[in-house]
């Protein structure tokens, strides 16, 4: 990548946390050499490595490029909103800058990490080599995390392992597996050996953080034709699973406890979390974690729920970015027709009214009410059930469905939302009011993921709401699924692989499986049941060879229809990078 005068950037941008130009003078006379002389200054350099995680990645927009464009989600209302991310530009030209924040943010942070790693030997007041290694291990861990996202988002990318000190506008892209082997895996091994068992303060990585990410990274190399690291993935996962007490981590007895506000900042299942602390640089105090907004449907489309005063508490929001796909809904259906418990533990499917609502004529027509039971002026009192989503696996479905249009609240069938071909239903045929086909009035009401409802809303600015919750980068539940998949790749469908899965199913009182149930698709579906929405699905599809048009057309055709195999498995290199280098020819990813 383009090399810049990093000294002024670090001093003005990171130590002072200002929004300064890269070309500014440094009138203070402070140099990086001076700052790195002692532990206090070195700690400030390390904190610079964290700056881009809450600024660009977790809690901001990372969900768009890690969950969007997959088999699990379409855009809100199946619209063309955020179409670059959720629908591959809906068949149009992809914006070349759609992922620039991840590229620029990652490489800025990698430069900080390199500086820290190269300068650690200058610090004169470390008490021991152990203390020195524990501090620099933070930079190794973070560099690996940034490179992981760069490689998986962009494919072949520039690899730099040392501090940038001079101008060089030539850029060479390095193959993904080489970046894993030269940066990601060695960094994580070093971090696992040297990070403390317990992080000194919240938001810092510990041994469990490095071990979890190492297991994930080793497994991810499978997509590059490398089986070399599968045994390491399994062994590392086993270490966390079997020696969890040594690393201060364990599964919650209750799956939902991962997402409770009371556990958010003391989450023993979380392996690494991003906190929104100004200790690590300016995080825009007015705009912390916004992931909680991403998955809400539009309950305020129904007049019994008014927007005014509605979006001031967690769980009362309207209008997100993601609508679940029919495939995501289907993976929670057990073979015997029952429902996997994680469905109700992960999704909100009912809402109450917040006004004293009387049905009007337009609403009666819009929602096709049976005029014999719901008439103009029929009342739905404040606090009553206003919207409920039903599905065939639920015990009351058979009795509720026949009267769904006779209720004074909205009882929405999943069949009102999805067709048998796995597409979202965009049209509805009225049977009670002005019969005929119209735009689907029920499309606003779909199951809404609640995994990010784990904090309290704050409103530092008028009409601006954000969450104080820490963002969980990875949790122990995923490690069990990494172990199961690594075992499957190594030795096939074994009882060992099934046992890893059954631990997660047992804690939700879910159905146990046998070795014969294990297939690659089963493991992918199990990851959806356990981890949907948790920053991983795009990477899962890449690793398992499922990020293809054929697969997406089968599972989620609303998205798959726009996917191009030769193009969309990586993101476009930002135009600013192309413009800045002296060798732009052939640098861009194919098709962009």
From TrEMBL:
Primary location: membrane
A GO CC annotation given for this chain: cell outer membrane
Pfam families found in the cross-reference section: SusD-like_3, SusD_RagB
Residue ranges annotated for the SusD-like N-terminal domain, each copy included: 78-218
Keywords, ordered alphabetically: Cell outer membrane, Membrane, Signal
Domain called RagB/SusD: residue spans: 268-592
Keyword Membrane attached: yes
Family recorded in the similarity comment: Belongs to the SusD family.
Official protein name in the record: Putative outer membrane starch-binding protein
Organism of this sequence: Sphingobacterium paludis
């Amino acid at each position: 990548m383009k090399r810049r005068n990093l000294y002024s950037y670090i001093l003005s941008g990171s130590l002072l946390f200002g929004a300064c130009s890269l070309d500014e003078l440094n009138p203070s006379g402070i140099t990086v050499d001076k700052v790195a002389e002692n532990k206090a200054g070195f700690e400030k350099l390390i904190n610079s490595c964290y700056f881009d995680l809450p600024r660009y990645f977790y809690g901001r927009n990372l969900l768009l490029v890690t969950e969007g464009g997959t088999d699990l989600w379409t855009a809100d209302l199946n619209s063309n909103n955020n179409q670059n991310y959720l629908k591959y530009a809906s068949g149009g030209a992809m914006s070349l800058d759609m992922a620039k924040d991840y590229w620029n943010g990652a490489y800025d942070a990698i430069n900080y990490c390199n500086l820290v790693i190269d300068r650690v030997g200058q610090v004169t007041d470390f008490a021991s080599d152990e203390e020195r290694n524990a501090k620099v291990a933070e930079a190794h861990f973070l560099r690996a995390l940034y490179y992981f996202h760069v490689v998986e988002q962009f494919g072949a990318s520039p690899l730099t392992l040392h501090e940038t000190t001079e101008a060089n506008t030539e850029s060479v892209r390095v193959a993904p597996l080489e970046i894993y082997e030269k940066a990601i895996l060695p960094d994580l091994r070093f971090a696992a050996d040297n990070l403390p068992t317990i992080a000194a303060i919240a938001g810092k990585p510990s041994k469990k953080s490095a071990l979890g990410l190492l297991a994930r990274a080793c497994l991810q190399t499978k997509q590059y034709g490398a089986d070399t690291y599968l045994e390491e993935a399994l062994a590392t996962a086993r270490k966390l699973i079997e020696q969890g007490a040594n690393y201060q981590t364990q599964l919650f007895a209750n799956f939902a406890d991962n997402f409770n506000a009371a556990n958010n900042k003391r989450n023993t299942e979380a392996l690494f979390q991003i906190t929104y602390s100004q200790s690590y640089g300016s995080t825009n105090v007015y705009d912390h974690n916004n992931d909680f907004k991403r998955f809400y449907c539009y309950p305020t489309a129904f007049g019994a729920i008014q927007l005014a005063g509605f979006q001031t508490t967690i769980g009362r929001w309207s209008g997100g970015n993601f609508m679940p796909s029919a495939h995501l809904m289907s993976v929670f259906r057990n073979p015997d027709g029952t429902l996997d418990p994680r469905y109700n533990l992960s999704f909100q499917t009912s809402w109450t009214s917040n006004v004293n609502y009387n049905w009007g004529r337009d609403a009666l027509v819009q929602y096709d009410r049976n005029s014999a039971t719901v008439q103009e002026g029929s009342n739905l009192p404040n606090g009553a059930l206003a919207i409920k989503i039903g599905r065939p696996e639920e015990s009351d479905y058979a009795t509720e469905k026949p009267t769904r249009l006779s209720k004074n609240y909205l009882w929405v069938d999943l069949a009102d939302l999805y067709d048998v071909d796995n597409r979202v239903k965009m049209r509805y045929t009225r049977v009670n009011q002005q019969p005929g086909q119209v735009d689907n009035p029920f499309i606003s009401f779909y199951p809404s993921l609640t995994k990010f409802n784990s904090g309290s809303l704050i409103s530092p600015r008028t009409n601006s709401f954000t969450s104080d919750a820490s963002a969980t980068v990875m949790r122990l539940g995923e490690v069990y699924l990494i172990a199961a998949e690594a075992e499957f790749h190594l030795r096939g469908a074994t009882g060992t692989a099934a046992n890893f899965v059954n631990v997660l199913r047992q804690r939700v009182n879910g159905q146990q499986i046998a070795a014969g149930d294990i297939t690659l698709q089963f493991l992918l579906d199990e990851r959806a049941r356990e981890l949907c929405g948790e920053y991983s699905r795009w990477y899962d599809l890449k690793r398992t060879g499922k990020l293809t048009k054929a697969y997406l057309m089968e599972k989620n055709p609303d998205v798959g229809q726009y996917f191009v195999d030769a193009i969309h498995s990586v993101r476009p290199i930002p135009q600013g990078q192309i413009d800045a280098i002296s060798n732009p020819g052939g640098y861009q990813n194919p098709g962009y």
